[in-house]
């Protein structure tokens, strides 16, 4: 039986880039989403992908996360060629190494918030009791202990996003992918969610790849990359 990871404690990070995208091309019919996009993500860093609407940010995120296979180009994670993996291998990689936070939490409405947060551990074979204890620790850490027994429909947008962050980090992934994680929140709530998210990711040693339109959200990153016309045009220290 697998034991539940604890909610705290740093991990050692390898040197060199953890995730590397080289010359990615993606077309949706006549639309070129990625033209020749290259990017490196280092272990433990928070990287913001900025750029105009339709420039290819989400497509790049999906390729990096092994959700979408590019038409050409390669993505390597920890030296493994993600683009050469079968669908089953990529799914297994996503479950074991990656976490995800989307704009609208995407919590399972029928489950309580604690059950939602515990879900990745349950899928990894952790006992119900251990998974739920760890889920509650994560909800405490994200300052929403009171939502544990509520369903997503009974909590606010900001509370739900905190549960989504807890669910993304509970397996201590090496990378968390976040697509507009605060896009549906007011600025005050969004800032607090980002503070808690980045602090928790730093504690666990997870890298964060974040798509955002908002400079205020990107300000929480260590580095910004600008995507324009399907290319990564600039990578500047945040
Ligand atoms: N599934 C799809 N089918 C067809 N076209 C798509 C699909 N996904 C993305 N596109 C197109 O590819 C281009 C890049 O889209 P993408 O979502 O990556 O941009 P983005 O920078 O994330 O945009 P936004 O900031 O508005 O979310 C756009 O022209 C978009 O319309």
UniProtKB/TrEMBL annotation:
<dbReference type="GO" id="GO:0022857">
    <property type="term" value="F:transmembrane transporter activity"/>
</dbReference>
<dbReference type="GO" id="GO:0005524">
    <property type="term" value="F:ATP binding"/>
</dbReference>
<dbReference type="InterPro" id="IPR015854">
    <property type="entry name" value="ABC_transpr_LolD-like"/>
</dbReference>
<dbReference type="InterPro" id="IPR003439">
    <property type="entry name" value="ABC_transporter-like_ATP-bd"/>
</dbReference>
<dbReference type="InterPro" id="IPR017911">
    <property type="entry name" value="MacB-like_ATP-bd"/>
</dbReference>
<dbReference type="GO" id="GO:0016887">
    <property type="term" value="F:ATP hydrolysis activity"/>
</dbReference>
<dbReference type="GO" id="GO:0005886">
    <property type="term" value="C:plasma membrane"/>
</dbReference>
<dbReference type="InterPro" id="IPR003593">
    <property type="entry name" value="AAA+_ATPase"/>
</dbReference>
<dbReference type="InterPro" id="IPR027417">
    <property type="entry name" value="P-loop_NTPase"/>
</dbReference>
<keyword id="KW-0547">Nucleotide-binding</keyword>
<keyword id="KW-0813">Transport</keyword>
<protein>
    <submittedName>
        <fullName>ABC transporter ATP-binding protein</fullName>
    </submittedName>
</protein>
<keyword id="KW-0067">ATP-binding</keyword>
<feature type="domain" description="ABC transporter">
    <location>
        <begin position="19"/>
        <end position="238"/>
    </location>
</feature>
<dbReference type="Pfam" id="PF00005">
    <property type="entry name" value="ABC_tran"/>
</dbReference>
């Amino acid at each position: 039986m697998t034991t539940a990871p604890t909610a705290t404690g740093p991990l050692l990070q390898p040197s060199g880039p953890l995730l590397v995208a080289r010359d990615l091309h993606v077309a949706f019919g006549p639309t070129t989403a990625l033209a020749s996009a290259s990017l490196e993500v280092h272990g433990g860093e928070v990287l913001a992908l900025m750029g105009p609407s339709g420039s290819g940010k989400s497509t790049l995120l999906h390729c990096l996360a092994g959700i979408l296979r590019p038409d050409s180009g390669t993505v390597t994670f920890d030296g493994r060629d993600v683009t050469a993996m079968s669908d089953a291998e990529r799914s297994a990689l996503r479950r074991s190494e990656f976490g995800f936070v989307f704009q609208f939490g995407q919590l399972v409405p029928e489950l309580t918030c604690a059950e939602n947060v515990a879900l990745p551990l349950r899928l990894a074979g952790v006992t119900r009791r251990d998974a739920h204890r760890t889920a509650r620790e994560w909800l405490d850490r994200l300052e929403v202990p009171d939502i544990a027994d509520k369903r997503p429909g009974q909590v606010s947008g900001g509370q739900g996003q905190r549960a989504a962050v807890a669910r993304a980090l509970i397996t201590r992934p090496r990378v968390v992918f976040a697509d507009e994680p605060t896009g549906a929140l007011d600025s005050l709530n969004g800032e607090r969610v980002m503070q808690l998210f980045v602090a928790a990711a730093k504690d666990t040693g997870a890298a964060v790849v974040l798509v955002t339109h908002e400079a205020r959200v990107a300000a929480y990153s260590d580095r910004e990359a600008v995507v324009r016309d399907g290319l990564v045009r600039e990578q500047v220290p945040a």
